[in-house]
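Ticket #4471: structure output looks truncated?

Reporter: J.K.
Steps to reproduce: submitted the chain below (555 residues) through the standard prediction queue, then opened the result file.
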Amino acid sequence: MAILADEHMTEEPRGGRGNLFSNVANAIGLSGGRGLLRSVGLENLTRIRTSALARRIITFNLIALCILLVGMLYLNQFKGGLVVEKQSSMVIESELYTNVIEARLFDENTTNRGLIEGLPVSEGLIARVYLPDESIAVQLNGASVDLATGSGFIAWLGGVLDVLPGLRTVSGQTAPMSEQFFASEMAKAAFSGQESIRRSNTQAGETVLAVSRPIMVDGSIAAAMVLTSQPGYLDGLLAAEQQSVLRLFLLAVVVSIVLSVALANTIANPIHDLARAAEAGTTKEGRQDDATRVRIPDLSGRPDEIGRLSRAMRDMTSALYDRIDTNEEFAADVAHEIKNPLASLRSAVETLRIAPEGDGRVRLLDVIEHDVRRLDRLVSDISNASRLDAELVKEEEEVFDLTLMLSRIAEFHTHEANDKEVELIWDEPDTPIMFDGMEARLAQVFVNLISNAISFCGQGDAVRVWAREKDNRVLIVVEDTGPGIPEEALTKVFKRFYSERPEHDYGNNSGLGLSISKQIVEAHKGVIWAENIHARDAEDGDAPLGARFVVGLPV
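Returned output as attached by the reporter:
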């Protein structure tokens, strides 16, 4: 039998894959410069380069992609699946060849070439028929296909990954040997009556897969059919799959960077603007638009945490400026209030130097003593008022019996009222009222209101205190039968240092009591107001029957 020369079945190579990534790159704007970046409005990357948060977002996303890539290449089932699939197809193909050859061997006129003439050999395979003397009766080669067609960066990256063990090669089951020698070894196994499926590696590290079957004629082995893969064909399939994964990875990298930049623009840039606005308060350049106010960007329309942060910063800034304005007004009021007793003291001291001994010097000393006490009381009240905000924030609220607290306060002020021959009436509610708040601070409010009412009353007047719970609110009312409050003063009584006192009582109050009371009530999210008591049939201009202070607190 003649030995056939190598014959290559014609099949168009699967080239052209190398241009896949370049086509994708062109489509997404990589080769065109910044096309994709312009399409999403991110051409200005200066802020991204200077933003640590943006760089962190991009880095973490790329690290996650790299871990995913390595995991895919290490853990995917392609290598094992490819070997099993190729083995199955080679077993079926070798069985077909064996059946055809066994049928043709009954024809004595069949030549060696005719044994497998017309049989298709799949690409990347080599079909051989061995005679009992281990010589090759006929050999037919399938088309050689170079699947590893990657170029440029893809090929370079694939080469880098090949350094990692186990990413491409399939280990053989036998010692490294040439493909021809491996095929002859498989033929020997077939002549022993065995059907074998094995794989090996060549000295160059290429994987070879082989299937051998005995060819039976009249119950005896007449030849051996050996089907092997071309050296490097299986590795080429793996390399092609790896390059497909790399192309997908590069596309994912580009998309991840673009999305990371877009995410950084929606997160890092607004935070940068908020931080710059907050820092502007410490520099003159940051307040060029308004020398007295720092403008926080209004991002409150965003339905996320940055929108909440913007609203919180704007509210905080507004509250801070309100506090600054309040402190400035408070300082001005304090200066004004202190000047009056100081002026009186100065005048009294200067007069004392030249006053003769007698009643005149005693009266001057009384004036000095009164002004000193007034200053001491004023400084104490100012100190308490200035610390009130900080103390209200620190103190904790707790549930207490509001009825019991008012009862004790009323009982305490009964002696003060009796000394002025004023009747103090405590109208206790039918059921106790429990309230969640700062008991000591609210007690300060009602002590102030009751004391204030008693101080305006004279002999025969009365002060009535009552409390009721209605519609999720508690109303506490302190009313008296005194002279009432001038109509023009109803809106002023809660202002700092305002005092509407009789002349004989001038200087005995700092004018901060009602202001402090209002501050405490508002800290409990309540309201307080003053009004005059009029008869039902009273006309405009009629004198009031007394004054009433109402405190409303939410339950």
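Triage note (M.O.): checked the attachment and the full token line is present. Residues 305-354 form the longest helix (50 residues).
Status: closed, working as intended.
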